[in-house]
Design goal:
- The chain is built from 16 helices and 13 strands.
- By secondary structure, the chain is α+β, with helices and mostly antiparallel strands.
- The chain has two domains: about 140 residues, no CATH class; about 260 residues, no CATH class.
- Helix 5 crosses helix 7, helix 6 packs across helix 13 and helix 8 crosses helix 11.
């Protein structure tokens, strides 16, 4: 076991924390008592073990809470409504210790763990106040870090496969609540005796929908920092069907053009050229996803692609905001949200542990595939892509799984190779030097 650090806004990925930095950066009671005060083999591995680090004869210093998605169901309803008496609320324990003693002073410590407080394999999270640095430090036990698989990097870029949950647009309360009522949105809870029970309304958080995760940002940064592909290529991928940031059949379709027979030693400059060539061939045959990508790729040479992207995104945001000011527009967006929630449940079911995490809409499973349009409206997915998302979810397998490609991409390392070569041929500027360049920038 080892300590890894990640400072939000500074670090691009987790990196080992040196003993010298740990002594300076981690001066909270949990770190000084356990992580820096004990050998790794003795670090606490359960919620009970964390609590045992700070015994106290004053019981007022220790607080215990039960939290969870099932907490949205009030105790009164849970106890008094017959249909809820067997509801599995999946509650978790939060233990809090006030003014826990540490090497560098006292500080509050909070730990979150499963219902089994002795479990050493379930999740374990700790937040502790650092009196020296005047901040809370956050700790989480996790498996050993792995190098990102290059093919998964492409899947994250083109498919948007790692959703998180967030709230974005503002909607008038009366319109939103009426839309929820009109659509019959509800939560479905599992019963301990088997079966389910429907609970009208949403969760405690309005418009809780999947969106791209921070992990996607990490994946894209990895593609750039590891110099795997050119900035123009990455941006064209991201802008293809950009109003649908996750489960986009258009970006999924782009994976069809990634070759699976890449020879060892192939640089990513060569690989990028080959992918683009395949996409252009697909565009000539009428593939709408390939045609959108090619339109963006050609635009990169005619005008700044970033400026075009900003204009397109602003047009989308303006249109979406206007739609969300009307009851019909809000209902359309809620139907799209239901489609994405169902996709998230199926494709990322390990991410959603409890049935009460997200609300659903009656009959949503039979609604045609929906998509957000570039003008901010919601409509049916284009005929070429109808059923594509559901088919991908049913298959539960990436469209491309090539060890040869993964190995070739892992060995290669040139983000600027394609553009640098074109710069030498008088066709452009090197994205690394922002000038004409004679360097291949091999890693």
């Amino acid at each position: 076991m080892s300590l890894l650090k990640f400072f939000a806004g500074i670090d691009g990925e987790m990196t080992p924390l040196s003993p010298q930095d740990a002594a300076t950066d981690l001066q909270d009671p949990f770190a000084t008592t356990a992580l820096l005060g004990l050998p790794p083999a003795q670090w606490p591995q359960s919620l009970k073990a964390v609590a045992d680090l700070f015994p106290s004869s004053d019981t007022s210093n220790n607080l215990v809470f039960l939290v969870g998605d099932g907490g949205q169901i009030s105790a009164a309803d849970f106890l008094n409504l017959p249909q809820l008496k067997d509801l599995d609320r999946s509650l978790r324990y939060v233990w809090a210790r006030k003014d826990a003693p540490g090497k560098n002073g006292t500080g509050d410590v909070l730990a979150v763990g499963p219902g089994d407080i002795h479990s050493t394999i379930s999740f374990l999270q700790v937040v502790a106040w650092d009196p020296a640095n005047q901040r809370f430090n956050y700790f989480q036990r996790q498996p050993a870090a792995k190098e990102p698989d290059p093919i998964q990097l492409l899947l994250g870029l083109m498919g948007g496969t790692f959703p998180s949950i967030s709230n974005l647009f503002k909607v008038p309360f009366d319109i939103y609540s009426q839309a929820v009522k009109n659509l019959g949105i509800h939560m479905t809870g599992d019963l301990t005796t088997g079966g389910t029970v429907d609970i009208p309304g949403e969760t405690d958080f309005a418009f809780l929908v999947p969106e791209p995760a921070f992990e996607d940002i990490y994946l894209i940064n990895s593609l750039a920092s590891k110099k795997l592909f050119s900035p123009g290529f990455l941006l064209c991928c991201l802008l293809t069907d950009f109003p649908n940031p996750i489960y986009s059949p258009a970006r999924m379709k782009l994976m069809d053009y990634v070759p699976s027979d890449v020879a060892p030693g192939t640089t990513t400059a060569q690989l990028e050229d080959r992918i683009i060539g395949n996409i252009m061939m697909g565009a000539s045959k009428g593939d709408v996803a390939a045609q959108e990508f090619v339109g963006l790729w050609e635009k990169e040479r005619e005008e700044p692609l970033v400026q075009a992207a900003a204009t397109a995104i602003q047009t989308y945001l303006t249109g979406a905001s206007a739609k969300l000011a009307t009851l019909a527009g809000v209902q359309d967006v809620l139907k799209l949200a239901d489609f994405r929630r169902r996709a998230a449940f199926k494709f990322n079911n390990g991410l959603f542990e409890f049935s009460l995490t997200l609300p659903i809409t009656p009959g949503g499973e039979s609604v045609p595939d929906l998509a957000m349009k570039a003008d901010g409206s919601v409509g049916r997915e284009v005929p070429a892509f109808q059923g594509a998302v559901r088919a991908a979810l049913t298959a539960r397998a990436p469209p491309v799984q090539s060890k040869a490609l993964a190995a070739a991409m892992a060995m290669a390392g040139c983000m600027g190779g394609v553009a640098a070569r074109r710069a030498r041929e008088g066709q452009g500027k090197c994205p690394l030097h922002f000038a004409r360049c004679d360097t291949e920038h091999e890693a």
